[in-house]
Every structure is written in C-alpha cells, then in structure tokens.
Amino acid sequence: MIPKIILGQGDTRRLIAYLFGKGTANEHVAPHLVASWNGFAPDPGRSPHRDPKEVEKQLHTQLDQPVAMLGRRAPKTTVWHCPVRAAPEDPILTDDQWAEIARRIVAAAGIAPTGDTEACRWVAVRHADDHIHIAATLVRQDGRRPRRDHDIRAVQKEARQIEIDYGLRRLKPGDGTAAKRPTSKEHFKARRLGQDATFREILRLRVRRAMAAASTEAEFFALLEATGVTVRLKLGPSGDALGCNFALPGDTNDKGEPVFYAGSTLAGDLSLPKIRQRLATTSPEPVAIRPGNPWHQATAATERIPHHLAHSDDAVAQGQLAALGGALDLLPLTAPPAARAELEHAAVAFERATRSRIAADHVSSRVLRRSVQVIWKDPARHGDGAGLAMLLDVALTAVAYAMHWHRIRQHAQQQAAAEQTLIHLQAAYAQIAGPVLAGLASRAPSPQIQRRYAHQLQQAVPEHADRILADSAWDALATVLAQAEAAGHNATAILDRALSQRTLDDAHSPARALTWRIRRLGERHAPGPRAQAANADHPTAPRSQEPQTRRR
Predict the structure, then answer these.
(1) Among 44, 377, 447, 462, which residue's CB has the most CB atoms within a 10 Å radius?
(2) Which of the 8 DSSP states describes residue 523?
(3) How far apart are CA 35 and CA 103, in angstroms?
(4) Residue 499 is inside which H or E element, if any?
(5) Residue 233 three-state SS
(6) According to the UniProt record, where is the region Disordered (predicted)?
(7) In sequence order, which residues have a C-beta less than 8 Å from that of residue 273 and are 6 or more positions away?
(8) Beta strands in 351-482 (DSSP E)
(9) What is the pLDDT of residues 139-162, one digit of tens each?
(10) Are 396 and 422 in contact (CB under 8 A)?
(11) pLDDT digits over 346-362, tens only?
(12) What dihedral angle (degrees, nearest 10) is formed by the CA atoms of 21, 24, 26, 30?
C-alpha cells in the first residue's frame, strides 16, 4: 500500500473538483465519500437530487471553514492531500475498509488523532477499486495547527501495519533515498501515448547514462543533448549554474510547453552539485591510462567489489555500488540486441540499490568507471561477446554481495532491488554466455591434451575436479587452456593463478567460472622461461576462502 503526501496552498476547491471529476484519463469511476471528519459531510457523488457542483461547493466550504476563520493569520500551506493506493494483486477492499484505512492514516499523520474532536477537517474520496484520496486542511477546528512532525515517515509506518492487518502485499520499508515515483497522471499519460515507461523514468535513465559515460561536465551536457534531452540551467547572481532541469521531446503540458524535471526530483544523486561531485572524484587522473583490454580491466575492477563490500568502510563500499550501477547503466548499449532488454531491466532495478543514507566515496571506483567508459566509446572492441560474458559473470557475484551488504544494514528496499537485479542479470548472462561457450567448445583440443588438463586439474583442485570434468563447459575450459599455452603460458601455472583468485565452493558451473578467468589471464603477456621457473619454485598463495553468497 502506497500513501503519498502532497502539500498545497490556497483552498480545497480545485482539489475537490478534481476528485469528483472525470479525471484526465477517465479513471474516476463513481467518485464518492467513504469517510469524513464528522461522518456526515456532504457527498457530491451520492446526492442524486442536488446539483453536484453545489454539493462540491458546500463540501469545500466546510472543509476550509477553520482556515477562513483565521483570515490573514492562516498559514501559507493549508491543503494536505494523500492518495493511498493498493497493489494490483491486492483484493478489492470495501468502502468500510477504505474508511477505516483513511482514519488510521490521518491519525498517524497527526491530522486527526483518534478521539480528538477539535482536529483538522478531512474527507476520503474513492473513485477506483484500488485507491482513495484523502483531502484535509492544515488548521484545526480550534484554530491551532496540527502536530504533524515526520508525517511522511509515520504514514509509511502505518501503511506497513495496514498491509499486515488486511493481508495486502507487503512493501519494504524505505530510508527516504528512493527516487520519486511517477504520479498516476504520468502513468496515464504514458499509457495514452503507448509508452511502456513514463517520461520521468525515461529521463532518469538518460541522465544516469550520461553521468556514467561522461568524464567532464561539458561532456555530460553534450551527451544529454545528443540523446534529445533539453537542459535548462538555474543560474545564480554570479551567472554560475546552481542547478539544472531536464525535459524530453514530446513531453508537454496543456499549454504545449516542455515539462521540466529538476535533477533532484528525478533522484537524490542527480542534482547538479551531486553530479559535479561524482565527475570530480571519478574523472581521469592527469596520467596516461595503462593500455590493455578494457573488458578485462572492468572485469578485474568488478571482481574486487565483493572484497570492498566485505572489508572496506561503508563509504568506500557505497562508492563501489554506485560505480557498479553506472556500469550496468551503460552495458545495455554494448550488448547484443537479444540481451538488451534484460540488461535494461537489471540497470533499472539496481538503481535503487546504489543509494542509501551512507555518503559514497567514489575515488576507489575510478578504474571500473573509466574502463566501462572506454568500452562504451569503442564499440569495435565488443568482439564475440566474451568480454561482456566475463564481466557479467563477476557482476553476478558483486550484486549478490551487494544484496548481503544491504541486508545486514537493514536496507530493505535496496536489498530487494539487488535480488531483482540478479534475476535479470542471470537471464542476460545465459543469453550472452551460451553462444560464446558453444563457440569455444567447438574448438576443443584433442582428447590427449584434454586428458593432460584433466590430470592437472585433479592435482590442483581435487575437491572440484570431478564436477569440472563433468561440467558442460569443460570443452570450453580446455579450449582456453590450449589457447593460453599457445600464447606462451604454462598450463599448470595459469590454472593455479585462476584457482587462487576465488574459491569455487559455491560455483554452479566451476568450469565456466574458470573459463572466464583463464581467458582473461591467457590474453595477458606470457612470462618468459625464467619467470615461469621462478613461479614454479614459489607456489601461488592459498586460494581465497571469502564467504560466498550466490551460485552461478
């Protein structure tokens, strides 16, 4: 159940007219009162022998009477409006049930505490099966103002209890960092235009992608312009930009004017100061970036995220999650068409997991951000999909760790977002990795060479050897081992290095996990004979035993 508090100025006349009108998309069906402050307020929807407009006037006049009595002493903000919406899968509630819910909401908000006969005046209007609107005035009948400290938090808490009491879908408690939801009007507008997403949601994604792709503020604005986003800067007295609003083509109001959204209303981290902070802390350093395969660099950086989440301070961990969110925002633009939809869904879902009350330290995430930017700017490096498959393989582990990190900090909404992200990432990974693994398997080395690799596996990792050899990805693993040998690597040494990176205890497909690791290691410069001899004299460090939280 979702309650949403909206404050307004003036009187309740326009609000009452809207609530008892037809609605902007014919969504108002038989509007009528289900509850009021006194139990017998005039009902424009249930007065068949009177002009509805006259009843509306009588209703808003009675609602506004305490405000009118104060005259010039009345507060500036006097209208309290709270739509309360049930989930689509919830049972249809009766008018009496909605009436009780309305009374609980206004009591929790401090608008009309239970038993307070001098409280604010309010009404609850129902014009659809799944929601009501509560309209109230913010002056009590004794002329005082209501005590509504933290009413948003109190109403949300009461809504969670109502869900339990009525057997409704239970939502996760939030921490105030979620992006603003599209309004009903925005949803109806999108539906009318045949869009799957609202303009607000489309705009949020485009701004996030521009922020993930840009290295400078100028590049950020250029990328927005290239994707059709109109930017309107808010200038201070000095002429410096203090904020920015964004609009999409085709999104206009009744006057045909563009509908602008402030960055901070799209999401808390999309205000201009927050965008500048992110760009300043993650922009390229004034040194040359080490050459190499950007897919490998991004994969290595993503592979370190679980360690940061398990061992770094919360600020660094939060910065890593923000960087991972930026990477997921850009990955759909590099993916094959068949996998783009799932990656889009994953990016949208994980957006909620990138924000909490913890201030993010973005400095440690520079490598991931820069390498993904290089991938996005150079489509020629996409290759056969192996780079994306490798990156998604470690991203699955990173998202699973993010889910655990949020769980132990009681970030319920963020944890749920990470869980949803995993579902979409796993689907995308299967679509991308399948053809790549099949291609590698088709080039498997001879049975004699495979027997040698099998013996090396049994020597190096006896606890997993049988699973690896029986794995459907074994032929692909044998292929990348052969390719590494052809490039000058020692098969035993590179296998030991791959095994030392992470434990295989929770790997759903240990052969597949090793395939990506060896593919990445094998493309690095092979050590010379002396270095290989030295490595043989100094075995690799024991394999990591970090706790795992997902199966892949």
Answers:
(1) 44
(2) T
(3) 8
(4) helix 491-501
(5) strand
(6) 526-552
(7) 243
(8) none
(9) 999 999 999 888 988 999 999 999
(10) yes
(11) 999 999 999 999 988 98
(12) -20
The answer to whether the CB of 377 falls within 8 A of the CB of 417 is no
Residues with Cβ within 8 Å of 455's Cβ and at least 6 positions away in sequence, in order, are none
Q: Kindly report the pTM of this predicted structure.
A: 0.76
Output the 3-class SS for 161-175: HHHHHHCCCCCCCCC
DSSP-derived 3-state class of residue 34? strand
Six token digits for residue 56: 């509306």
Classify 290 in phi/psi space as left (phi over 0), alpha (psi -120 to 50) or beta.
Answer: beta
Q: Are 132 and 98 in contact (CB under 8 A)?
A: yes
Give the residue from 18, 19, 27, 17 showing the smallest Cα distance to 191: 27
Structure-token pair, residue 317: 């961990």
Range list of H helices, 90-198: 95-109, 151-166, 184-192
Token digits for 288? 């040359």
| Residue pair 302/342 in contact by the 8 Å Cβ criterion | no
Residue 283 predicted with pLDDT over 90: no
Q: What is the DSSP letter of 258?
A: B
> Would you say 517 and 509 are in contact if contact means Cβ atoms under 8 Å apart?
no
Using DSSP's 3-state secondary structure scheme, residue 8 falls into strand
Distance from the first to the final alpha carbon of the chain: 34
Contact 28, 185 (CB under 8 A): no
**CA atoms of 377 and 340, how far apart (whole Å):** 17
Assign 41 a pLDDT band (cuts: 50, 70, 90).
very high
Q: What is the DSSP letter of 274?
A: H
Residue 387, phi then psi, degrees to nearest 5: -60, -45
Q: Which of 402, 432, 238, 437 minimizes the C-alpha distance to 324?
A: 402
The answer to whether residues 283 and 216 touch, using CB atoms and an 8 Å cutoff, is yes
The residue among 463, 453, 539, 533 whose CA lies nearest residue 491 is 453
CB distance 141 to 120 below 8 Å: yes
Neighbours of 5 (CB within 10 A): 17
At 357, the amino acid letter reads R
Q: Which amino acid is at 140?
A: R
Query: Strand, helix or coil at 198?
Result: coil
What Rg do the C-alpha atoms of the chain give, in angstroms? 29
Give the sign of the dihedral formed by CA 51, CA 56, CA 57, CA 61.
positive
Distance CA 199, CA 189 (A): 9
Which residue, among 340, 326, 421, 433, has the nearest Cα to 373 in the 3D structure?
326
